[in-house]
Amino acid sequence: MSKKNTNLTRMIVYPVILLPIIVFLLLVSGNRWLWPDMNKFITDAVGVQMNWILIILTLISLGGIYLLILIYQVIDSYRKEKIRTIGIAARIIPALSSLAAVALSLLIIGEAGSLLFSKPVKEYTLPPVLQFSDGTPVEDIRMWDEIRRDEIISLFNEYVYGPIPEKPENMHFEILDIKPDALDGNAIRKIIRVYFTPGEAGPYMDLLIYLPKNITGPSPLFLGLNFYGNHSVSEEQDIPLPEVWIRNSKKYGITDNRASGESRAVRANRWPASTLIERGYGLATAYYGDLDPDFDDEYANGVHPLFDEETGSISAWAWGLMDIPVKTATHSGFILPPKSLFSTAGFI
User: Fold this and answer.
1) Measuring CA to CA, how many Å separate 45 from each of 120, 210, 220, 226, 246?
2) For the packed helices 50-78 and 38-46, what is the interaxial angle rounded to 10 degrees?
3) Would 144 be classed as within a structural domain?
4) Domain membership flag for residue 209
């Protein structure tokens, strides 16, 4: 091959081979060290996780490689060096195909940055479940109930979730809305604001409650927190939009971290209020961001400023699901039977 053709190879093929590798390393290193929230920013901005962006960029880059090799073949063939060109392509294309297969496999399995750059987990030993902290074995149910159970909960409080705070002393309530003919006339709906301080500046939690209308006596109640606001769990169009931070979602029409009419009823399929009412159950839900907005604000918003202890977000959300709704229901005129709350044990 002539020196001119060799220079052409270096100018076209080599830089393009390096392009997907450079893009990949820049994105991964940026997400890992320079800008840890880049993945979240990209997801919020375009509605696509960074892994898929990496896959798309890699495919585009590889497509460019094949295209430029094809162009190079045409140019080289025009210069009557077909045999040498085919030889070069026969060596390069299989290598690129293998590289693409490996890269795409890593990206599909999970975040490639985590696979390549995360530090290995140090060895650790979990404490035996049926053994007290002093090494004494747990021999019966009484020992478990009276001692060991509390020890394990204490470990979770210290190392995982943080302690659950005491209930606020000055909690009070305000009924914001009453709808006696909700859900096609089958339910009573109330929206109750739970204030956690003596004043009304906040923080507070808005609780949406549906109870069967045509049932005599108290009704058992399903209780849970929702991700996108009370308006997102019901087909009813008159539920107020939350005024607090909401996670952006291109799918649900949420931008600038503010709820909009587009996000009404987007999660109603997960909260079958009408079905529950028909079967004699009630439903109570609140937006989890009222208790703690789910972003890194160094615990400046929500209920955290009320606590002196190092309470984590999960503990704050669980705290809001304890007996606060029971007191709310009682203050709002609903009497719940003992052991009638069924928590969804999560967020839907």
Assistant:
1) 31, 35, 42, 23, 14
2) 80
3) no
4) yes
